[in-house]
Structures are given as structure tokens and as C-alpha cells.
Amino acid sequence: MLKAGKIYVALDPTYPQPRTAYMLADSEARLLLTDTRHLALAGELAKDGQDVVDCDAIDPSTVTANLSEAISGTTAAFLLYTSGSTGHPKGVLHNHRNVLVEVRNYVSDVGIGPDDRLSVWHSFSFSNSIRNLYGALLNGAAVCLYDLPGQGLMPLAEWIRSNEITMIHTLGSTFRALVGILPADATFPGVRVLRIGGESITGDDVRKYQGHFPPPCVLLHSMGPTETLQRPAPAHRPRLERDEGKVPVGYPVTDKEVLLLDEQGQPVGPGQIGEIVVRSRYLAIGYWRQPELTAAAFAADPWGGEERLYYTGDLGVMQADGCLTHLGRKDFQAKIRGHRVETGEIEAALSKLESVKAAVVHAQPDANGEQRLVAYVVADPGMTATIRELRDGLAQTLPEFMVPSSFVFLEELPLLPERQDQSARAAGPERPASGAPGDLQGAAPPARMADRPHLARAAQGAEGGRLRRFLRSRGHSLLAVRLMQRLETEVGSRLPLTALFSAPTVAGLAAAVLGQEASRLGPGRPPCARAAASRRSSSFTATTTAAGSTRGSSPAASRPSSRSTPCIRIRSRTDGSRTRWRPW
Question: pTM higher than 0.70, yes or no?
């Protein structure tokens, strides 16, 4: 695709179909590439004039000659869609030169070679995938794929060791979930780079890294919007603030200057808060088919250089040595599990629902300090809005991470002069999730649940003698993975993640656990408490192949020498030599 000088758009098959269809139509894509696993979905999405190609069915020996197209550095390369304030996602357009500069800076930071094995377990429609894929492509390294939603957290530590992963790039929330289930003495001596991006990290995160990732592993912390790909360079072994709260993001990378400007557009001094503005030649071209939005976010260099400015909307403070600390947003965007979310897009989607008169969405930290979305809803007169109806309605058009965790029903939105909904946002929900008819499961748990208090505590769903459905009450994919991990740790039974979707209550999961125990122990033997033998019993997990299919693999068969997980091995030259950089 890139050699042909065409633009590609990464699509996540887990997104709601209307959202994916909008991205296809907005990007004006003429060709849809997929694999056999998602061929049926691609056929449903394809419109008149769009061809569908199953890459699994292509004979690799069909074409052997290299393309001779002359591609310049300013040629557009790809579109990445992010949340938009207009009610629809917006496409961010980058060129070839930006990718090369991004990879060059990444290689300069950590060095990447043919012996490296990079882990990938987040969506390819995420900007973080650019560093991993092209960093490997241009340096002969391997990309190893792990299906985090399908396989869960429990096998992940062993997967990292058995596949000899040397570089991990993950979100802060995923890192916390992983180290939260590790034994105190668990370490990853083979990992030399741990890169946490997309979210702020804390002093506690740094201590967890120090405990589980021994030297010479370095911790890299980076944050950057899709428009810049990477903003400040991470500090190796970041220092802690005195209050051990937020850890500084680090220092500006080569070719990307970070400015802090006040409301009048003037630079602020060290220790003063200002909007983070990036000055560089290597910014996104702009927003696809949205010139007004592009003009509002990007500006020509006021000092007359070739650089441009990108106004991030983030607030920060910079120390005298140039170290930047990220403080949050100046507008109503939010970072949810590494994804930048425009709360206005969620508000627009809520307002389109028949039972909703008005809505405001706000992001606030939960008990673990991670951002979650809270929706304040005013129902249409004469109509009743339930949480289930609102969730189901939003799930038709929004990806899972954009569906609010909590809903608060109000008679009207409080007003303030500067913004109508400010006092509603400031108030916050009185409870983590508001109840509504149809959101509770009335079935009582099995009698043997009295012996399983861990299961009820792990689900965190028992309320007033009734069981709230997990996915209707603050549940999202990462929490689902954590829940199933907690279930295995506390009860000793490993259930597939699909069990949570088919039985999303404490009662349903308890029945699944008891059924699994009865099946394992055989007829005539009652299910009993967890035993050491049950923890040692073998089980099979699905391993995602490079082509997207699954195959069975036994954890006992995973050994460092076998490298059982399929990886993408990419070399920059036939002789495996490093890529030579030259000015574009």
C-alpha cells in the first residue's frame, strides 16, 4: 500500500458497524483489505464501488518484482480516526516523512535491531502501533501478537517470557492490571525496554516497574496526540515528584519543540502553567476533509520558519531544565484507557436517543485513579430512560471505551454563565452508577455461593440482595479481563472471557464455575474448594496467529526455546543490516 503511494485507514473490527461504515465512507476508500476471519464483516461494510480482498487467499508468489513508484516524503501515508466534537470521528492525515522521523527518534531513544521482539496487544487503529510496526519493519525486528481480550491477563506474564519479548509498549491502565496480578518476586529479566504511553503515570507505577523489571531495562514514558505522534521524549528511569504523584513526561524529542503559551499566545516561564503547543515540520497534514478544524488547531510559524504549530489543548508546566509535566486538558476532551475522547461526541450520540432531552458527559477519576466517563441525563418529558436503553443505544454507534461507566439522571441541567453544564460536571455522581429499572438481575446466587465470597467480591456487583449485570454496571473490556483473572486467582477456575458475556452475573458465573468443577472431578464427586491439583491442571488457550485465526496451545508447551507464538518477522534488507537514515 505504501509503496504504491496510496493512503491506508486502519479499521478495528470490534468497533460498532455504523462507526466503521462512517469511517469507510468519510475516507472515500475504494479497496477493503481483510482476512478470512473478517471476510463476512468486510462484505457487509463494502458499498458500491468498493472491492474486498481476502489477503489470506492471495498467492505470495504471484508478484515478485518490486514497485518502481517514486514516492516523496510529503506523500500522504495513512489516516487514523480519533474522537470528534461534531458527533463523528475525525481523520488525522500523516505523510511518509512523519513516519520515518517518528521511527528515527524511537530508534535513537532505545535502538532496535534484528534480535528484538516487540509485543503488540493493542488495536492497530491506535497511533502507538506506528512505532511498533514501522520500528520493526525498518530495523529487522519481530512483532509478536497477543490477543489480550481473548486470552486475558493470566497467561500474559508467561507469554512475555516464553516468547523472549525484549520491548513492551503498553498503556498505563494495562500495565497496572498486569503488575497487579504478579507475585511480589516476579521479574522479566529479558525485557530491556518498557514503554508506557497514552496516559499519565504515577510514582507507584515507577516503583512497580522497578520491582518487576530489573536493570538494564529502562522505563520510557511518552504522551502525544495523534496529530504529533510523539510529543516529549521520555526520561530513562523517570524521577518522582516530591509528592510522588504524577511523573513528568520528559523532554522534547528531536525536531519537535514544546512551547507553553498563555491565553494571549505568549510563552510562560518555568514553573508556570500554559497550554502545550508543539512546533515542528513533522506534524500531521491536517484533518481529513475538515479545513476549518485544521485551521483552528494548526498555525503557521509566527517566527517565519518552515515549522508549524499544533495547539494540543493540554495544560502543562515545564521546569527550568526543560522537563515537562502534563496536568490535564483545558477543554472537555479526556483520555480513557489511552484513547483521546471528545465528550461532545458522546453528548451528541446521547441527544439523538429518543428518550433523552439533554445530556452532559464528564470524565473523572475512579477509586483507582483511572479516568472514567459519567453521563448526566435529562429524560424527555413523558418518557423514561433506563441505563440499559442508554447503553444499548450508544453501543450502536460508539466504541466500547466511549460508553459512559455511570449515568446520573437529573430533572434539569444546572446552568452557569460560562457553560451551561458546569455545575453538573462539578457535582459528580452521588453513586458510582445510578440504578434504573431493567438493570438488575433478580436471580439469587446458588446456595454454594456462600462458600465463594471471593467471586462476589471480584465481580463487585452484589447490591441489596440483587445482582447487577457486569456489563450494565461500569463494566468494560479491561475490567472484564481483570475480573476473570481475579476469578482464577481467588476460586481456582479459569473460564474463557466469553463466559462473562453469556453469564454476566455473579449467579451465572458461579454456576459456570461449579459446572466446570463438576466436569473436571467426574460424576459422583461434588464440587469442592480449590485444591493445588486444580491449579496445576492443564488447560488450553487460544493463540492469535499473524493471519488472525486461532489455534490451541498448551501453556505447558510454551518454552523460551520454542517461541510458540506466531510473530511477524520483518527485515529491512535481505542481508538483515540496519536501515541507513538519510535526509528527506
Answer: no
